[in-house]
Each structure stands twice: as structure tokens, then as C-alpha cells.
């Protein structure tokens, strides 16, 4: 598959792909470095249109004129097609995008973009969690159905990456070069810290959960700015444009990246509350449950039964299931 269908490309840019279609795009992108660069360039064209709702007719005409002029130049040089094939194919895609998204004059700057110095990593719903090491040593775990864009080499003054979806970051400390994660909703700035960020376009809330360190979270549409401390979570409601902070066991938001559920001096009640949050299942505790505390790590399983079985081996409890609910009571040993 050397070319990507224009309709599928448009659905991808509009974030309307099914999981099967996203897998096709992902496979095409991984075929070659050129494909990755072309897709990144297409996204730059598309998202540049978010900066303005309406364009003057003169700007649109200039954009069209420049676009078709470049296409004509390449067609006249088909005898040298081996050298111009990549650019011709890229411009062909650009034509489809600009015609469908003709409400912006930013396409004028399209041919000035240079994306050869960027990498783009995507995951579909069926892909495993991917770990990426950035040029500065920062570690990133990319969750399912997510996209990460980053430069092959950071500048001397700043480190900026772009995220769509969810990722877990362990940022290498560098006081001279702040680290920033950007998307259409939030801008998160750090020096060196560990945090989870979820900015999935299909969710009502954009979230930043700080596990260690300090971060500054800024709304991209004048929702305000908040500085988080360890154990705090910022939530921005996209509809109300309100941003709030709450204290939370932020490590729970990052369980997906390594499958570990950590506990320290936690009661059975607190552990059960965590499992309810992760597995979305109602668990009812007997009033006479043991009040002792426990420390350690549980491993996240595909089903809650496997986790509860491990608990019964380590704690004096047993459980039963009835009508979708789980009941836990103490046992005498």
C-alpha cells in the first residue's frame, strides 16, 4: 500500500476514523520514514486552520493559485519523477485537504514547512502501550489511540512536544530548557517531573495528574493557569471552560502504562475503593471488615476476579458475586 486513500486521510484528520481505519493509517505510516513525514505535514496544514474561522476571498484565491502552480510545475517535470515523486504525492494530498478546508488562508505557508526534523508516533486501540525515549532522555509511555509528535533534536532554549490522547511522562530535568506538552486544549510546562496527561478529543474533560514534581497547566482558550503539586489533578471542562484542581491518588491515572497498582499503608476499604475506580464495578464491604493497613503492589489484570483472588491470598477476606455486584466479608483464619 504505497498511497493513502484521500477519503481515509480526511477522516483521520477529522478524528473520525474507526479502529480498523486507524490501524490502516498506522500501518501505512510505519511503512517508511517518508510516509511519517507526509502525514505529519498533512496534519500541520489541517490544524493550522484552527487559528482562524473565516478567510478573505483574496487569501483563498492566493492559496489556490500557489497550490495549483506548484502542481503544474511538478507535472511539467515528470521526466525527473524519481526525484519529485514524494513532493508530488504530498501536494496531491494537500489539494484534497485545502479544497475541503478552504476556509483558511494559512495554506499559503504550507510550502514553507520543513517537517523532516520531526517524528510522529501513533497507536490504535489494539496496539500495545508504546514507550518512547525522547532526544533529551525523557521517557514517554503512549496509551492506545494516541498521537505524539516531537522533534528529533530539541532547541537550546526549550523542549516542546504535541500530544493527542493520553501519555505518561518521566521528564529529564533541565533547568535551562523547560519541557512543554501542548495540544488544542492545554499547555503543560515542567522542568523535571512525572505526570499523566489525558487530552483525548472524545472526552469532555482534559486532565493532568501530577505524580511527582511541579507543573504549570494553562488553558489554551483563556480558562486560566494553575500550578500543581504532587498528588493534585487539574481538570478542564471543554464545554463550561472551567478548570479545577482536586487532591487525588494520581498514580491511579497512570496504572495503564505499567499495569501496577501501588499501595502504601492502605486499608482494605481504600484498596477496594481504588479497584472500584479502575474496574467500574460496585464493591460492597461488610461493616466488620479488618481495619489493618497494607503496603505493596497489585498487578492490573484483564478481569477483576483475578485481582480479588490475589487479595484473598494476602488478606483475611473472601468475596461473592450477585447481580453484578461484589460482596467482601472477613474470614477467620
UniProtKB/TrEMBL annotation:
One of its GO terms (molecular function) is sigma factor antagonist activity. It holds the Pfam family FecR_C. Residues 263-328 form the Protein FecR C-terminal domain. Residues 125-216 form the FecR protein domain. Keywords: Membrane, Transmembrane, Transmembrane helix. The chain crosses the membrane at residues 86-108. InterPro entries: FecR, FecR_C, Ferrdict_sens_TM. This is Anti-sigma factor. It comes from Coprobacter fastidiosus.
